[in-house]
Amino acid sequence: MRFHARVPALLCAALGLTASMPPAATDQGTSARHAVNRTTEHVARAKGTVTDTIVQANPLLEEWDAPFGAPPFDRIEDEHYLPAFRAAMAEHKTEIQAIIDEPGAATFDNTIVALERSGKALGRVANVFFAVEGAHSNDALREIARTVAPELAAHRDDIALNGALYERVKAVYVRRDHLDLDAEQLRLLEETHKSFVRSGVNLSPDAQARVREINGKLAELSQQFGQNLLAETNAFELHVTDSADLGGLPANLVAAAADEARRRGHDSGWSFTLQRPSINPFLQYSPNREMRRQIFQGYALRGNNGNEHDNKAILSQMAALRAERAEVMAYETHAHFVLSDNMAENPDNVYQLLDQVWEPALRVAKTERDALQEMMHADGIDGTLQGWDWRYYAEKVRKARYDLDEEALRPYFPVDAVRDGAFMVANKLFGITFTELEDVPRWHPDQQVFEVREAAVQTSTYTRAGRESVEISGTSYDAVLLDKLNHVTGLKVRMWIDTESGRVVQVEAPSNRRSYLADASVMKRIEVANLDQNLVTKVGVAIPDVHGISRMKVKAKIEPTGLWVTPESLNVPAQKFTGGRRRCLRRCR
Hints:
The chain has helices at residues 9-14, 29-55, 81-101, 108-117, 120-135, 139-160, 163-173, 183-199, 205-235, 251-263, 276-285, 289-300, 312-328, 334-339, 347-378, 387-402, 406-409, 415-430; strands at residues 238-240, 270-272, 433-437, 449-453, 458-464, 467-474, 493-498, 504-509, 516-517, 523-527, 534-538, 543-545, 554-559, 562-566, 575-577, 586-587. The protein is an alpha+beta fold. The protein has four domains: 9-202, Neurolysin, domain 3 (Orthogonal Bundle); 237-300, no CATH class; 415-453, no CATH class; 458-587, no CATH class. The strands form five sheets. It has a seven-stranded antiparallel sheet, with no helix packed on it. A three-stranded antiparallel sheet has the order 10-11-12, with no helix packed on it. It has a two-stranded antiparallel sheet with strand order 1-2. Helix 3 (81-101) runs parallel beside helix 6 and helix 11 crosses helix 16 (387-402). The model is unreliable at 1-54 and 456-589 (pLDDT under 50).
């Protein structure tokens, strides 16, 4: 479900999450597929009148025809967002009601799949809005965020606390062991059911009403907290007028601080802010301890200054509301509620892990502190090392002990070179390529857009051993036939596939190492002789997953009677492996 009962799609979008769509369950056959099709058609007819008028004037609700379906950022204005949110929520409600009104019995397809597919329009609007509001905000966008937060929380509760919808989900869930679901489908079903329960669908009406109130208020307070923090961050300025206070600050950062001062209306000097690229270098290089204290405290005390952006009351309210909600949901604390759906499961397990880390981490931190304190005293400064001293003296100790100057490395790591290096590694490892696109709309002129492609695979008709087959060759994996071929090795793999059976007839991969090989019916983890490396061979379909350093050279041929394997580098006759699923690994010598 794109607007999941557990987490609204807008929050998924803000976190960079997407929901996958599993294939429909196979046990429910054609009738189930017809049922989900009827549901989809019902939704399409019912929602048609909701957005028709708005779509004509709102690019967020139109079909996006830019390359790769990119949003039309060049036509989206701030005033489009709130109407788009409300229209998309209305459409989503219509989709949910269509699932509830489905006349047939609840099935995986017409309930779980339909629920997973719902909310597409809302997800698209939220993806765009929260990406822009989080990175390039303004007063109008912040006001929209404050307005829409409680509305979205209420919308989420309308779905998560919908008893009729839950009954359909529950009806599928209780029959889960008889539906012949694959692992992915079963996981989706279990998570969907759990999300309704954790949202409070089984609570009394009065308790549900209170949970709704709490969720709405928390959404509002959370939004206000973030905006107060942003306001405090943006308002702070440390204006420096004496160049001596800049210390060894690199020239490019000095120039950036001068530009910031001009932008803030100063005729001269340098201005530093609480943004990381500004505050961190100043703390690292400025010899002026008082100024370091001012900017450090400015960062540490954001939202704690007793002004209109103070967050103390907000935090107090949020803590109280979270505690109350946990109690209503029958959990000991908010931490117990949150962790019950995470790997740690409970606070005791969290503390158990942290306690293991705490003592050794504290020991190292004290050693570092003593070294910095000693350097500070050597500078003639008495007193105790403070937070605003840490970066400055860490830099001095680093230079004194290791003669390491981070700025000397900076020319070798411009942002474009780092990006290109990351792209190169991805290409070497996985064969994917990156091509910059100039014709895609963007919301800021500094943005770059890249097309990411899997490595090219060449295909041609090939005849071998009396069979018409397809040869697939390339320096990287094919999405269907190869599993994670490690491109650092420079391996080139050739395969011949029988067009009638769809099975691999022959596989060739250059190498100079002997290998271990497994039975044709299973995938095993095996070792490479004389190497502390692993080699996984999926000989069930004769597809090698060759790890970088192994460079094995193998020919494999599948016949009805078994798998023939020839490790060519060893100059030995082919060996044949057959047997059951639990057959032990054998070595080709």
